[in-house]
Amino acid sequence: MKRDIFHAIADPTRRAIITLLALQAMTPNALAEHFNTSRQAVSKHIQILAECDVVTQKQSGREIYYHFNAKKMKEVDEWIERFRQLWDDKFNQLDDLLNDL
Amino acid sequence: MKRDIFHAIADPTRRAIITLLALQAMTPNALAEHFNTSRQAVSKHIQILAECDVVTQKQSGREIYYHFNAKKMKEVDEWIERFRQLWDDKFNQLDDLLNDL
DNA sequence: AATTTGCGCAACCGAATAGTTGCATTTATA
DNA sequence: TATAAATGCAACTATTCGGTTGCGCAAATT
């Protein structure tokens, strides 16, 4: 796969789309209303998000509802994870708490 | 600023550079040895990372050591944060624990 | 049945990207 | 002092990106 999640979230418009879809599934037209670009431009972003499984689609008649797949964000989180202790000790405390459970 | 941290981590080579620099500060030449590209290409990536404060430089004679600035990763983490509860309940437990402290 | 709506797909365009090579400058070394 | 090493900067190139417009098709509406 050529595109990965890091490429997907690199674009501000795509991050906005993700945020919107996290609140509720939407159609391309509904999404496009939130931006100053054409529906086709939004559709291209959706396509990129779909390519790396950040969103999934669900057809309903002639409409297509796109759903946010939160699990994919885990990949980013796991990469960030290794740096977390370098910037904040709070998470070390959390790790200790977890180990005690 | 045109480039942001999300753009910085979009490129696989730049993520590798970040990972290397997180272990220890290095010079462009030393970094370039880890990749199949020219030193100049690596320097370009470093420049982008420097532009958005992911790395800082420290001159030492004719060598320049680049240091990783972990704090910048916080910005990514804070954006991911809002999705965390959507994929994993473990972090909700953690939040509860924190509130009890 | 005719028309409107929602959508994907393709072609095109200017700007940015990631790489290259070549060169100038400063610092270390012989 | 002459040379080698480390780096940044500029010019060039092929590719990708984010956007546009135009189109065709299937589903809803009239």
What does the model show?
The structure is a homodimer of 101-residue chains. The first copy, chain A, has a single domain, classed as Winged helix-like DNA-binding domain superfamily/Winged helix DNA-binding domain (Arc Repressor Mutant, subunit A, Orthogonal Bundle). In chain A, 59% of the residues lie in helices and 12% in strands. Chain A contains six helices and two strands; from the N terminus they run ααααββαα. Chain A has helices at residues 5-8, 12-23, 28-32, 39-51, 73-87, 90-100; strands spanning 55-60, 63-68. The longest helix of chain A has 15 residues, at 73-87. Chains A and B meet through helix 2, helix 5 and helix 6 of A and helix 2, helix 5 and helix 6 of B. The structure holds a DNA duplex (30 and 30 nucleotides).
What are the defining features of this structure?
homodimer; 101 residues; mainly alpha; Arc Repressor Mutant, subunit A; two-stranded antiparallel sheet; 6 helices; DNA-binding
Short summary:
Two copies of one chain form a homodimer. With 101 residues, chain A is mostly helical. Chain A contains six helices and two strands, in the order H-H-H-H-E-E-H-H.
Number of helices of chain A: 6
Distance, first to last CA of chain A = 39 Å
What overall geometry of chain A do the principal axes of the alpha carbons give? elongated
Q: SSE order of chain A, as H and E?
A: HHHHEEHH
Number of domains of chain A: 1
Which band does the percent of strand residues of chain A land in? 5-15%
Largest interface: A-B, 27 and 26 residues
By CATH, the architecture of chain A is named Orthogonal Bundle
Please state the average pLDDT score of chain A.
91
Rg on CA atoms of chain A, Å: 17 Å
The quaternary structure here is homodimer
Q: Per CATH, what is the topology of chain A? A: Arc Repressor Mutant, subunit A
Major sheet details of chain A: 2 strands, antiparallel
- Tell me how many strands of chain A there are: 2
Structural class of chain A: mainly alpha
Strand order, largest beta sheet of chain A: 1-2
Provide the CATH superfamily of chain A: Winged helix-like DNA-binding domain superfamily/Winged helix DNA-binding domain
